[in-house]
Amino acid sequence: MSFLRVVQGYEGADIPGAAQAVTEADVRRALEKPVLGPDEYLTLLSPAAAGLLEAMAQRANALSVQHFGRTIQLFTPLYLSNHCTNQCVYCGFNARNDIARTMLDEEGILREGEAIAASGLKQLLLLTGDAPRRASAEYIGQAARTLRDFFPSLGVEVFAMREEEYAHLLRCGVDSLTLFQETYNRSLYAALHPAGPKRDYTFRLDAPERGCRAGMRLVNVGALLGLDDWRRDAFFTGMHARYLQKKYPQTDVAVSLPRMRPHAGAFQPASLVGDRELVQILLALRIFLPRCGITISTREPAVLRDHLIPLGVTRMSAGVSTAVGGHAGETESVGQFEISDPRSVEEVCDAIRRRGYQPVFKDWEPLDGVCAVAV
Ligand code: SF4
To answer: Where in this chain does the record put each Radical SAM core domain (predicted)?
Structure first.
């Protein structure tokens, strides 16, 4: 069985309508339960719950401290390539956008890695567009081999791969996988992805599971909030994380909550997610899945990110460039989207400490021959 069966189980269900019917008393009852089921999770995403954010925040804060302490993991993305064969209408790297295309060679990768390592960061997320003939699994694996001396933890946020490709990346030193479904709404997904291999909804939906099966230490899922009704996509995101947690207990499961950002292209999101709505999703998710990692990226402005720290966030990006070659300052290329928090790593660390939390650069060690096989 795959998560597709869970999604299919809700076919025809009016999820936004069910959320509208929730009362304040339903929310209070849900908040008193020690363990929440899917119905209670949807209750916390409802309009009625929007009036009880303070009570939700107190429970979310307590659960976060209980399971993660007062710590925030830091990482930064490294864009290897912006070549792409897809036409996702919401993305600046869309194959139809007339932007300069570039791809780092081994020297460029090394320069980017050295520039990032100088900031002290130890966790790196490697990104490419979706052009497997150019930026292939072999290319990404070779990049990981080049970078693994600097970075004990390497993640990938690339095209959906086959299980043996994920296994190859693991052998090259990659230990985590981030892959967003963008939207769980199948018909909307087809409209937003008019051409290219990413059109295959099911292959993408099952990719995080293939990563778990291949042995990834951490698998991070999410939806691009704003593409569809946010309650529906937030609901399925939480359900996807819960499905993976239950089926693959050896894998750490995390969720990202990215909102649509301006980019090189004219697409406007269908539903805008305000700050209060983002906070509600974060709180509901933390209460539903107390042990789930939650990532907030530099898509969000500094002030908001700082306020979210005690509410359930466990990972933040810092010192970010979304352009290929952007860290070593050797690029003319356009970024994938505009970031909102341009602070340096040290500035983000200071902000975390001011909130009484500890910035964590590294909390794991790759053991050759056990997790990441020596190459
Ligand atoms: S979201 Fe990814 S696959 Fe889609 S156009 Fe952008 S880079 Fe390509």
So the answer is: 70-299
